[in-house]
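Marked as duplicate of an earlier ticket. Keeping the data here for the record.
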Amino acid sequence: MTIILFVYDEHTLSVYTDPAPPDQVAEAINTGRSSLDPGWIPGCRWHAVCQADLVLVTAVPQDKPVSPGEVIQLSPREYDTLVGLAAGLSIKQIAASLGLQPRTITQYTWSIKRKLGARTREQTVIRAMSMGLVNPKDLPKK
């Protein structure tokens, strides 16, 4: 059984299940062939990525294409910040682990969101994982 998590924003999500394998579910969503209708967000399209038996789906602005071959340039500190975000750490926790001020981490987070075309922290992490920028297996434990 595949669990499908549609993330609308940092406060709203929908959960569905599907008997199909996760990779087939994600492909159907990404190609517009899915029978699931999570709703429509103006100026966005849905993008799905598999994580084990879970399919994470987020709205991506149509003017920012999702391309697995797309090269995203992150500074070393932006990458460290992204890994912290993906691990579920708070801004304060990331700042403490890197010996930086929370304000600096917030600025890195905004820069990463802009580069990835994401609006929320969740979209940022999902997009980074779908592009191979972050591997869930390599994340530090909270």
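See parent ticket for discussion. Residues 2-61 form one domain.
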